[in-house]
TrEMBL record:
PANTHER family recorded: BACILLIREDOXIN BRXA, UPF0403 PROTEIN YQIW-RELATED
Domain of life: Bacteria
Record family assignment: Belongs to the bacilliredoxin family.
Alphabetized Pfam families for the sequence: Disulph_isomer (PF06491)
Protein name: Putative YphP/YqiW family bacilliredoxin
InterPro entries assigned to the protein according to its UniProt record, in alphabetical order: BrxB/BrxA
Length: 144
């Protein structure tokens, strides 16, 4: 029985994608998707840079899920997948300056401008509850 590496990766990564899309977060899979959504997003937009690493699974995605239970949430919810949708991720990262590439990471934008950013080093040694608290605080500040 033979399975291509590409098919294997798609099968392995799909549950990681589903962790976010089942929350109503829209995947941006191409640079064109990113360009069509991010610069023109009126109001607030959350952009989660997803990853296959343990801190994405244990802290980032669960923290985002908890934060989205807040009464006040961003107007738009997006995700790109680092290492999987490489070109889309690179395009999204252009909007996260001056921060260097980091995955996982979480950006909050308001009217196309970055207003809050959580880098990998702020995810990997914190709990999902800590990340959720950080995000809900940012939501309360910027999503009004």
């Amino acid at each position: 029985m033979s399975m291509s590496f590409e098919r294997y990766m798609l099968d392995m990564v799909q549950p990681m994608r589903d962790d976010l899309t089942r929350l109503g977060i829209e995947e941006l899979r191409t640079p064109e998707d990113v360009e069509a959504k991010l610069p023109g997003a009126k109001g607030t937009a959350l952009v989660v840079v997803n990853s296959v690493c343990g801190c994405a699974a244990g802290q980032c995605r669960p923290g985002v899920a908890q934060a989205l239970q807040n009464d006040l949430t961003p107007d738009h919810l997006f995700t790109v997948f680092a290492g999987q949708d490489k070109e889309a991720t690179a395009k999204a990262r252009e909007y996260f300056a001056p921060y260097p590439p980091s995955s996982p990471s979480i950006a909050l934008m308001k009217d196309g401008e970055l207003v809050h950013f959580i880098e990998r080093h702020q995810i990997e040694n914190r709990s999902a509850a800590d990340i959720a608290a950080d995000l809900t605080s940012a939501f309360e500040r910027f999503c009004r």
